[in-house]
């Protein structure tokens, strides 16, 4: 979320800088000499740098989301009705409201009374 806000602020600042600078005043052309204006190299480089920075930030955001979704955590299910506790290794993306899917591919349905405890996996 923070990345989206930062990218939005950068785009707004870039647009404001572009609008403040405005267009160059119209020049009258002599019939004798016609000068060809070259686009300023610095503004072109700034635009390319902003595009590259936003693409890099977007790739980083997607990469971090993928990494975080595939993190394996330990889920402990506690049932007050049966007085039992069971622990499973689950990827974060496979934890849903009414079911979880373990790393081994086992689908577990949850009831409304069961309590989930999610903890980081302790490596041994």
**Level of helix content?**
25-40%
| Mass-distribution shape | rod-shaped
| Topology order in helix (H) and strand (E) letters | HHEEEEE
Averaging pLDDT over every residue, what do you get? 85
Q: For the report, how would you describe the main beta sheet?
A: 5 strands, antiparallel
What is the CA-atom radius of gyration, in angstroms?
28 Å
| DSSP summary: helix tally | 2
Which spans of ≥5 residues are poorly predicted at pLDDT below 50? none
**Gap between N and C termini, in Å?**
33 Å
Describe the structure.
- The chain crosses the membrane at residues 45-64.
- Keywords: Membrane, Transmembrane, Transmembrane helix.
- By secondary structure, this protein is of the alpha+beta class.
- It has two domains: 2-23 and 40-69; 72-120, no CATH class.
- Helix content is 40%, strand content 27%.
- The protein has two helices and five strands, in the order H-H-E-E-E-E-E.
- It has helices spanning 2-21, 41-69; strands spanning 72-79, 84-95, 99-102, 107-109, 115-120.
- The chain has a five-stranded antiparallel β-sheet with strand order 4-3-2-1-5, with no helix packed on it.
- Strand 2 and strand 3 (99-102) form a beta hairpin.
- The longest helix is centred in the middle third of the chain and has 29 residues, at 41-69.
- It is rod-shaped.
- It starts with a helix and ends with a strand.
């Amino acid at each position: 979320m923070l990345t989206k806000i930062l990218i939005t602020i950068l785009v707004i600042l870039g647009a404001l800088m572009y609008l403040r600078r405005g267009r160059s005043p119209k020049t009258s052309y002599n019939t004798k000499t016609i000068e060809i204006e070259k686009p300023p190299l610095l503004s072109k480089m700034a635009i390319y740098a902003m595009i590259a920075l936003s693409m890099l930030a977007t790739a980083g955001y997607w990469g971090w989301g993928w990494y975080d979704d595939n993190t394996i955590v330990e889920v402990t299910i506690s049932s007050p009705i049966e007085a039992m506790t069971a622990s499973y290794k689950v990827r974060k993306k496979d934890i849903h409201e009414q079911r979880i899917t373990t790393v081994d591919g086992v689908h577990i349905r949850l009831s409304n009374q069961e309590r989930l405890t999610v903890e980081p996996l302790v490596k041994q």
